[in-house]
Specification:
The protein is an all-alpha fold. It has two domains: 21-59 and 137-477, no CATH class; 60-136, Flavocytochrome B2, Chain A, domain 1, CATH 3.10.120.10. Helix content is 56%, strand content 2%. A two-stranded antiparallel ribbon has the order 1-2. Helix 6 packs antiparallel against helix 19 (441-454), helix 10 runs antiparallel to helix 13 (325-354) and helix 13 (325-354) packs across helix 14 (356-378). The chain binds zinc ion. Residues 210, 214, 245, 250, 430, 434 line the site of zinc ion.
Length: 477
């Protein structure tokens, strides 16, 4: 029996080693554990929790037709189809306090006028008291930032703050090349395509998907919806990402309700001064964990959001620290399922043409490339010691100042980094003005610096790339 088991394992290892590039050999045990754990969760977690009544499937009563803005409750259901930014953006935040989204998404529109127009939808007579906004969203600093952005685009065509045509053509070309390489990789099992597909997946995530999910790519809402899937099949699950990035991270950056702080719970908790491991061991842990960051966002997060299973390791449901998570889960559940089905169909096609083991090996390698790039550009600038001020100081500050305080930028004047990162080397300004396409942020940055200086807001810029990276590694321990 033992001999049989050993020889089976040896043969499996030979098969896997034949498929996976030697660079990834050290990852094979970790990836095997992750994939096995994922495949057996229906038996080990879902069914037992279902029998114990612990699963939480989102239901309609969790998402009332209420949108709260500045302490007033509105029923915007009749306005969904007329919303110039598309019904999707409005629907996604149903059942929650949307004051932060209202302020940060309407940089180029008169907010007071919008509130006047919204008055017809106000709910006044149901006896329910609306909660006050979770922080101050409007202050002189933010007003000046918005005025700076409006001034920058003054006299230009409507929608000029969206992606520029040259950049759009470049991004669409990258999208075309991406699919040519995916075809070559899948049909001919070409190993050399893997790093290119992984890098292009990040390029499309940073330059198209991210802008599109902020409605900053184009002026037409359905095109933004379409191109938010530009990095499929190696990008994130866009609906789960919307909950994570737009509804949580962008408003509550580095607060307890920012999901980016507990993605890797319970293995890593982003907490100031946790210091749980010798640094070299922590570095190894980071290298392994981040190799599967995209699989987490592509598969595990939507899977857990749909079923609402409790993670036995730390007792939380996916993103359950977000105030209105049940409403978001209910409202976006259909899209999440459709995206997951599309993903599974793609994997089935790969498995059919490549063989299941080879297909799995190829997927893991591509995801490793996209995971490292995604983590580097999207997470590191917020996860630095200096981005976590004293909570008592922070809670006194208005939204825009918190955003600047919670970000560290690098090489803000570099066109190359601006391009490769999809503008995320200038997170501080992106966090304040998410409706401006990333491609304009470099040009806006000198003016942004001036406004920060005028209001005494400290703008954090890393001295070098190594200090930027090192800051993340030491903080995340
Ligand atoms: Zn963003």
């Amino acid at each position: 029996m033992l001999v049989w088991a050993c020889s089976t394992l040896l043969n499996l290892w030979r098969d896997v080693a034949d498929i996976v590039h030697p660079v990834f050999y050290p990852f094979i045990p970790y990836w095997t554990i992750i994939m096995t754990a994922l495949f057996i969760t229906p038996v080990t977690i879902l069914i037992p929790q279902y029998l114990q009544g612990k699963l939480s499937w989102p239901s309609k009563k969790d998402a009332p037709d209420v949108w709260t803005i500045y302490g007033k409750r509105y029923n915007l259901k009749p306005f969904l189809k007329q919303h110039p930014g598309g019904s999707w953006q409005l629907r996604a935040c149903k059942g929650s306090d949307c004051t932060g989204l209202f302020e940060s998404c309407h940089t180029f529109i008169d907010g007071a006028l919008l509130l006047k127009m919204a008055a017809q939808f106000e709910i006044k007579d149901d006896g329910v008291m609306a909660s006050l906004p979770p922080m101050v969203f409007s202050d002189p600093f933010y007003d000046d930032l918005k005025a700076m952005a409006r001034e920058h685009f003054r006299g230009q065509a409507k929608g000029s703050h969206k992606m520029t045509w040259p950049h759009l053509v470049l991004s669409l070309s990258a999208l075309g090349l991406y699919w040519v390489l995916i075809y070559q990789m899948t049909m001919r099992s070409s190993l050399w395509c893997i790093p290119f597909v992984g890098c292009l997946s990040w390029y499309l995530t940073g330059n198209m998907m991210h802008d599109a999910s902020h409605n900053a790519l184009m002026s037409t809402p359905w095109l933004n919806r379409l191109f938010s899937h530009a990095a499929f099949p190696y990008g994130v699950n866009v609906s789960a990402w919307h909950i994570q990035h737009i509804l949580s991270h962008h408003i509550y950056t580095n607060d307890d309700t920012d999901v980016d702080l507990y993605h890797f719970d319970p293995v890593i908790t982003m907490e100031k001064g946790a210091g749980s491991l010798p640094l070299w061991l922590h570095f190894v842990r980071i290298v392994y964990l981040l190799s599967t960051a995209m699989q987490h966002l592509n598969v595990i997060a939507p899977y857990n959001l749909l079923f609402g299973a409790v993670d036995p390791a730390h007792g939380h449901r996916q993103y359950d620290r977000i105030n209105s998570i049940k409403a978001h889960r209910f409202e976006l559940r259909c899209e999440m399922i459709l995206e997951m089905v599309a993903q599974v169909v793609f994997w089935a096609i790969c498995g059919y043409f490549q063989g299941w083991l080879r297909a799995l090996g190829f997927q893991m390698m591509v995801f490793a490339f996209s995971s490292y790039l995604f983590s580097f550009f999207t997470q590191i600038s917020h996860l630095q010691e200096e981005c976590f001020p004293d909570p008592k100081v922070k809670e006194q500050l208005p939204f825009a100042k918190r955003q600047v305080m919670s970000s560290t930028d690098f090489s803000a004047d570099s066109a190359v980094w601006g391009h490769l990162s999809g503008g995320l080397n200038t997170q501080a300004i992106h966090q304040c003005l998410p409706s401006v396409s990333a491609m304009h942020l470099r040009a806006l940055y000198p003016k942004f610096r001036e406004v920060c200086i005028k209001h005494g807001v400290e703008l954090k810029e890393a001295h070098s790339l190594s200090s930027f990276l090192w800051g993340f590694i030491s903080f995340s321990n």
